[in-house]
Amino acid sequence: MSQIYPARLRKLTMKDLDAVTEIDYSLLGAERKRYWEEKIQLTESSAVPSLAAEVDGKMVDRPVVLKAERIISRTAQTLSP
Predict the structure, then answer these.
(1) pTM tops 0.90, yes or no
(2) Which position has the higher pLDDT, 19 or 64?
């Protein structure tokens, strides 16, 4: 049985750039540091932030957030005229 750790959700910031890039690389096998730098810059001023999950002060994988962003993106494409 896997162990469950309490995670804290918070707004993604530029301080998270290296951790997000590492996680993204582990999921996709490609480095997209510039992509994340631009995305974080945009979300820092957005009313809809990207979220980071932390366990013991360390960022952990964010597949739920990535999945949610894809769903929102697909929904927006479906709804656009």
Answers:
(1) no
(2) 19
